[in-house]
Amino acid sequence: PLTTTGALITGAAAADSAVAAFNVITLEHVEAIVAGAESVAAPVVLQVSENAVKFHDGDLLPLARAASAAAERTAVPVALHLDHVRSEDLLRRAADAGFSSVMYDASRLPYLDNLAATHAAVEWAHGQGLWIEAELGQVGGKNGAPPLDAHAPGARTDPEEARAFVADSGVDALAVAIGSSHAMTTRTAALDHVLLKRLSAALDVPLVLHGSSGVPDDELRAAVAGGIAKVNIGTALNIALTGAVREHLAARPDVVDPRTYLAAGRTAMAETVARLIGVLRTEGTP
Ligand code: G3H
Ligand code: ZN
Fold first, then answer.
1. What is the pLDDT of residues 163-178, one digit of tens each?
2. Using alpha carbons only, how large is the chain's radius of gyration in Å?
3. Which ligand is nearest to the CA of 21?
4. Which partner for 118 in 89, 169, 195, 263 could form a disulfide, CB atoms 3.0-4.6 Å apart?
């Protein structure tokens, strides 16, 4: 059934576990993520990014409706999250489209501008009953940008600044920059676990890891143990999808029916979803 991101995160955090949030680009992503979660009987977040909305001609509803319908049909709890929103206009379409949560991303702005924009987004979101995540520090690799130098000043989240940011903005969760980067196709990111521990001690809101596709299994487990409550995964599914489609088409160059190779891609994504949820689960996970 359809549930809320807030409920899933609260449940995961209480079990010292994390909820997996997978990025949706196509209908097959929706189907695969739900099938993968069903196969391990786990809750999951379906998240749609502003970039994915742009891909669908700026229309949020096709993916939102597909995700809502899949959530209502399945036995596992599924929440809908709007991811990396920069546009005010898109933000304001979230509630009507069935999303229970949004990530408002003003992390590219200087601190005070990020705070002011995030505070305004929080006021609106809470008025709509939406749970809202924001970002402080910079997780690199967005929109095709190269991975940031994670040691560059300002790239990582500073615990004292984060404490003030959370208190002054009123956000429900914070995406932290601790060494992961978006769109990595190798799993080679090394996380700063000392920093994560300091962030976790300084903040009383759930922490979110972005760019998790590039983070190896043992590092993901350590991040969950260190206080990460939501793990965002996108690229790993696209690697699975594209790899399976490429393999299928290479083996059968005469194929024209997209259902044959999309089915192979969907299966590969579902397997990746199940595997990664398994990595994030701890004993006692609901
Ligand atoms: O918000 C989405 C995630 O941070 C996905 O990052 O594609 O590198 O796994 P990823
Ligand atoms: Zn992200």
1. 999 999 999 999 999 9
2. 18
3. 1
4. 169
Atom of ligand 1 nearest to the CA of 233: 9
Evaluate: CB of 81 within 6 angstroms of ligand 1: no
ipTM: 0.99
How many domains, the chain? 1
Average pLDDT over residues 245-269: 98
For 213-269, give the secondary structure using H, E and C.
HHCCHHHHHHHHHCCEEEEEECHHHHHHHHHHHHHHHHHCCCCCCHHHHHHHHHHHH
Told to judge if 89 belongs to the known catalytic residues of this protein, a careful annotator would answer no
Bridge partners of 81, per DSSP, are 47, 101
Q: Which residues contact 269 (CB under 8 A, 6 or more apart)?
A: 28, 29, 32, 33, 36, 237, 240, 241
| Any domain includes 285 | no
Cβ neighbours, 10 Å, residue 189: 21
Question: How far is the C-alpha of 275 from the C-alpha of 64, rounded, in Å?
Answer: 25
DSSP code, position 59? -
> In degrees rounded to 5, what are phi and psi of residue 226?
-85, 0
Residue with tokens 């939102």: 64
Strand, helix or coil for residue 133 = strand
Q: Is residue 210 part of a domain?
A: yes
Domain, as residue range, for 58: 2-280
State whether the beta carbon of 157 lies less than 6 angstroms from ligand 1: no
**Catalytic pick among 57, 59, 83, 96:** 83
Q: Compute the distance from residue 209 Cα to the ligand 2 centre, in Å.
A: 8
Instruction: List the single range of 22-31, 82-91, 127-136, 140-149 with lowest mean pLDDT.
Output: 140-149
Give the domain CATH number at 8: 3.20.20.70
Task: Give the pLDDT score at 74.
Answer: 98
State whether the beta carbon of 235 lies less than 6 angstroms from ligand 1.
yes
